[in-house]
Amino acid sequence: MGKLIPLIMALVGAGAGIGAGLALRPPSGAEEALQECPQTSEAAALKEGEQALHPESTGDSGTGENAKASYVKLNNQFVVPVVKSGKVAALVVMSISLEVTEGGNEAVFAVEPKLRDSFLQVLFDHANAGGFDGAFTASNKMLILRDSLKETAVRILGSTVRDVLITDIVRQDS
Predict the structure, then answer these.
(1) Neighbours of 71 (CB within 10 A)
(2) Higher pLDDT, 20 or 135
(3) Tens-digit pLDDT profile for residues 143-163
(4) Which pLDDT tens digit goes with each residue over 82-114?
């Protein structure tokens, strides 16, 4: 019974976090409005920095460098247990969005169950390899995770996917 209480508390906490995320997410039109806004100098600098880190995601993916992109937020968060010595030591909750070529939104939602399943397998493998231990948000660990997720997305969706964005991540230790 004593071992069951921390697990129940972790699941309740994760459920509350998911519920809060769903309740506080912006209306569906807000994301489109943000995409239509002209970029500020700070946003332009951030995009240039991202291009320097991931030059393969900005080049020719069959659509040209200046092709517009769409962003697709996957509907539910991903919950990944971190297991130590056969026990759940922590839960990692994250939100993932995909940068796709313009008009690729429908293709993502058409295969979302397969995409979620494959992403979960990548996330479980990352957790089992120690990717969520210690400084789990260090740039090298996040780069490895993003690249693995992008490879999986490209395998499923092809050149429609430009990049994978981890928009939220939190680890709840038990």
Answers:
(1) 17
(2) 135
(3) 999 999 999 999 999 999 999
(4) 999 999 999 999 999 999 999 899 999 999 999
Reported as type and span, the H/E element at residue 165 is strand 161-173
Higher pLDDT, 65 or 165: 165
Q: Are 81 and 91 in contact (CB under 8 A)?
A: yes
Taking the model in full, what pTM does it have? Answer: 0.62
Query: Tokens 């459920």 correspond to what residue?
Result: 15
Query: Which amino acid is it at 164?
Result: V
Q: CA-to-CA distance for 81 and 90, rounded, in angstroms?
A: 6
Distances (CA, A) of 129 to 82, 126, 140: 10, 5, 14
Q: Is 102 helix (H, G, I), strand (E, B) or coil?
A: coil
DSSP string, 27-87: PHHHHHHHHHSPPPHHHHHHHHHHHHH-GGGTS-SSS-TT--EEEEE-SS-EEEEEEETTE
Residues shown for the chain: 174
User: Domain map of the chain by residue range?
Assistant: 4-173
Mark out the alpha helices in 55-173 (DSSP H runs). Answer: 105-110, 112-128, 139-157
Pair 94, 127: CB distance under 8 Å = no
